[in-house]
Design brief:
The longest helix is centred in the first third of the chain and has 30 residues. It contains 15 helices and 4 strands.
């Protein structure tokens, strides 16, 4: 699958790529889902949300209710003004401003817009089914939620974070031998490093959602389990690391609200952590950013680790290159102190090359100490040098 940066379905394609790997390795799924399957799933879920959440005061909103309310609320004068404003006949056009819309008319229009959204969703669903050649959904929303929860859990939070931490360790602490086992040890020692790496989510109202660390404690792994998972998800390990960088940062999405959640979700989502491209399926910017980071992690991981080529952090034989015209990211190691400075410092370079800046900040002191405390059980010699077997 090719990932073109201007493809409107880029986010869906990237999700398909990751979900298919996870489903095959975790569930033994034989068939693969397609971007059209994902589109149908999202559209049908949005349709359910629209039907379940009619406009306030219209709990039984229907097309018939809209027609009745509109006919009662729309005065002949207002009808003429609406017709004149959309007419090409100069004799019908007028410069007069319509009178303020009544409360009844406002409610009628709210029902109309609600019903219009339902009609549009139904049309899009019909067209998507025609493209898929199927009459039934091949991927349900409940399965998507399960797969997404799995992906953003241990694969992203342990496998991806281990590679993420390894890159930051290599840049700021080259005296420590580099290995994913060391990073796993540090994550276990710090209960996933969630409180150390993921900033609290600040909402517009001034409230702050703090990380409790409870979920991280459940994600500590034995070395044997880590190796098993790493072997299963090796092909997407750079992608998981890219996701974790964004998860630990403050990303501003193109769409402030997730496209598949309910309408009661909190609106304060500016520069929020704990976010990935799977939260906003129509957001192309975060998909491009994730791909750009992924390419950097793959190329970096193939070149670093043990002195022996076969023991690098990533194995080229099982870590295929992603075919994309999205430029590879560049590591930004001189970290500005504010988000505005971060954006300003990266703006000129990003605009010139089209690449994204990959923020790799110094490690928090507790995490660095946890990395220092690692001892390789396979050797009795003091740990010196730049690589481990």
């Amino acid at each position: 699958m090719e990932f073109e940066q201007n493809d409107p379905a880029l986010n869906l394609k990237l999700q398909c790529h990751l979900i298919n790997v996870i489903r095959k390795k975790s569930h033994g799924a034989r068939s693969e889902i397609t971007p059209t399957d994902l589109q149908i799933m999202f559209l049908e879920h949005r349709l359910r949300l629209r039907i379940q959440n009619p406009p306030r005061g219209h709990q039984t909103a229907t097309f018939a209710a809209f027609i009745d309310a509109l006919s009662n609320a729309l005065s002949p004068e207002l009808q003429n003004l609406i017709l004149a404003s959309g007419s090409r006949n100069p004799s019908l056009q007028t410069d007069r401003m319509p009178k303020p819309v009544s409360g009844d008319m406002t409610q009628a229009l709210a029902v109309f817009f609600h019903e219009e959204q339902i009609w549009n969703l139904q049309r899009q669903i019909r067209e998507a089914y025609e493209r898929s050649g199927s009459t039934t959904p091949r991927y349900e929303f409940c399965n998507y939620v399960q797969d997404r929860t799995l992906i953003t859990g241990t694969p992203r939070g342990i496998l991806g974070r281990a590679l993420h931490i390894a890159a930051r360790q290599y840049i700021y602490h080259p005296e420590l031998p580099l290995s994913l086992q060391r990073c796993l040890h540090a994550l276990n020692e710090t209960h996933g490093a969630e409180d150390l790496l993921v900033p609290p989510c600040e909402f517009r109202g001034g409230s702050t959602q703090k990380n409790t660390g409870k979920k991280s404690r459940k994600h500590t792994l034995s070395l044997a389990t880590f190796k098993t998972l790493k072997a299963s998800y090796a092909s997407v390990l750079p992608l998981l690391a890219a996701m974790d960088v964004i998860w630990c940062g403050r990303y501003l999405p193109s769409h402030p609200l997730s496209a598949w959640t309910g309408s009661q979700e909190q609106s304060g989502r500016d520069y929020r952590p704990g976010h990935s491209f799977m939260d906003t399926p129509e957001d192309l910017d975060i998909a491009r950013r994730t791909l750009s980071y992924t390419r950097w992690f793959r190329n970096w991981g193939l070149q670093h680790g043990s002195r022996k080529a076969q023991n690098r952090l990533l194995d080229p034989a099982i870590t295929p290159e992603i075919e994309s015209d999205v430029p590879e990211a560049y590591a930004m190691t001189a970290m500005p102190t504010t988000m505005d400075q971060t954006q300003e410092s990266a703006a000129s370079r990003s605009c010139a090359s089209g690449a994204f800046a990959l923020p790799l900040a110094p490690l928090p002191e507790p995490l660095f100490k946890a990395l220092q405390s690692y001892r390789d059980s396979n050797t009795k010699k003091p740990e010196t040098g730049t690589g481990e077997g």
